[in-house]
């Protein structure tokens, strides 16, 4: 290695860190503007009965199109929103919009089925005062029964600040809102925690689903999770089902519900409503088993 190389590399490194910091600051500013201008949208991904594709509900997934950068994945901007506290305002908007949507679906499906909406909630929102009141106000405003809403909390955030978050979740369950542990299997819940957690549903993380077809060990793990859920009286939903093989294996292992590209990608609000307005409210059989890039 020539003598100047290390220094040059460092310069380049410095420059890229600088760029990253500037980009992040710009993203923060843009996100703050987006919050005041309400330029977010929600997509809705069906949650279905594994075998039939019958729609039980939809998970609301927030979308943000930056004016010049284009679509920014939620995994990125939600993290920034959490750092800056903007997540509270974004979360409020998401909650109201999702509850408004479920009110519409329940009208469409009146007398036939009662789809729910599942809303991702970050630990920051749970920690904010009066989260329960916010949820029940949103329900009342839209005239939606609490059974119309499920809240998803990631396993890792449930473990981080248990007392506050757990009390809040317990209060939500008392009014009839259901609670799911998102990305289950990626945190480190102990069995004794799990038994005491104020939740109704486990969502098995996509990392299990995506390796299930290749590995007997993963299959055994999923089977153990499904068994555990049964013992604890919890419902299970498998995330990230992309192929028929995965769907069939999950079904064989006793996992009754699923979500993933095989059934449907996340849909714009109108498309979700159209799907529910159909005669059956079943996701049509997927033509391809692998996601196309879109
Ligand atoms: P999540 O809650 O685990 O949501 C599932 C993610 O997996 C979504 O990504 C969804 O589009 C994607 N997905 C669904 N089916 C498949 C599949 O078959 N294959 C693959 N490869 N991916 C699939 P998305 O929309 O990019 O969201 C990423 C994460 O951002 C979410 O993970 C959630 O943690 C967070 N997020 C999304 N919306 C909100 C929100 O409104 N509030 C909060 N706090 N977080 C949100
Ligand atoms: Mg989720
Ligand atoms: Mg998840
Ligand atoms: Mg996830």
Descriptive report:
The protein is of the alpha/beta class. It is 50% helix and 19% strand. It contains twelve helices and ten strands. It has helices at 5-37, 74-84, 87-108, 123-127, 131-142, 155-160, 162-174, 191-196, 206-209, 216-232, 244-252, 269-277; strands at residues 40-49, 55-66, 70-72, 116-120, 149-154, 178-184, 201-204, 235-238, 257-258, 267-268. An eight-stranded mixed barrel has the order 1-2-4-5-6-7-8-9, surrounded by six helices. Strand 8, helix 11 and strand 9 (257-258) form a beta-alpha-beta unit. The N and C termini lie far apart (43 Å). It binds ligand C2E and magnesium ion (MG) (3 copies). Residues 45, 61-62, 73-75, 78, 94, 120-122, 152, 182-183, 206, 239-242, 259-261, 266, 291 line the site of ligand C2E. One magnesium ion binds next to loops.
Quick synopsis:
The chain is an alpha/beta fold. The chain contains twelve helices and ten strands. Strand 8 (235-238), helix 11 and strand 9 form a beta-alpha-beta unit.
Rounded radius of gyration (Å) = 21 Å
Hetero groups: ligand C2E, magnesium ion
- Principal-axis shape equals globular
Say how many strands there are: 10
Order of helices and strands: HEEEHHEHHEHHEHEHHEHEEH
- Helix and strand composition category: alpha/beta
Write down the overall mean pLDDT.
89
Strand order of the largest sheet: 1-2-4-5-6-7-8-9
Largest sheet: 8 strands, mixed, barrel
N- and C-termini, Cα separation: 43 Å
Tally of contiguous helical segments: 12
What is the share of helical residues? 40-55%
Low-confidence stretches: none
Strand-residue proportion: 15-25%
Protein name: EAL domain-containing protein
Keywords: Membrane, Transmembrane, Transmembrane helix
Organism: Polymorphospora lycopeni
Domain EAL: 24-280
């Amino acid at each position: 290695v020539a003598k100047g190389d290390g220094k040059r590399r460092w310069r380049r490194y410095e420059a890229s860190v600088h760029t990253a910091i500037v980009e992040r600051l710009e993203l923060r500013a843009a996100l703050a503007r987006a919050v005041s201008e309400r330029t977010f949208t929600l997509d809705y991904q069906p949650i279905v009965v594994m075998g039939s594709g019958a729609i039980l509900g939809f998970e609301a997934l927030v979308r943000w199109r930056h004016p010049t950068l284009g679509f920014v994945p939620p995994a990125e901007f939600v993290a920034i929103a959490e750092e800056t506290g903007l997540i509270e305002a974004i979360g409020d908007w998401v909650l109201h919009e999702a509850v408004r949507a479920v009110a519409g679906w329940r009208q469409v499906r009146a007398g036939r089925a009662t789809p729910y909406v599942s809303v991702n909630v970050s630990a920051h929102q749970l920690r904010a005062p009066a989260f329960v009141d916010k949820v029940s106000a949103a329900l009342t405003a839209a005239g939606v029964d609490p059974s119309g809403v499920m809240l998803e909390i990631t396993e890792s955030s449930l473990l981080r600040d248990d007392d506050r978050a757990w009390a809040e979740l317990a209060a939500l369950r008392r009014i009839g809102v259901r609670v799911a542990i998102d990305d289950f299997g990626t945190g480190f819940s102990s069995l004794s925690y799990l038994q005491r957690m104020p939740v109704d549903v486990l969502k098995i993380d996509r990392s299990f689903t995506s390796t299930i077809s290749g590995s007997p060990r993963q299959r055994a793990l999923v089977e153990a999770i499904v068994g555990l859920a049964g013992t604890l009286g919890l419902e299970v939903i498998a995330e990230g089902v992309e192929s028929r093989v995965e769907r069939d294996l999950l079904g064989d292992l006793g996992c009754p519900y699923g979500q993933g590209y095989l059934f449907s990608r996340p849909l714009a609000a109108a498309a979700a409503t159209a799907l529910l307005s159909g005669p059956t409210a079943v996701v049509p059989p997927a033509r391809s088993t692998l996601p196309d890039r879109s």
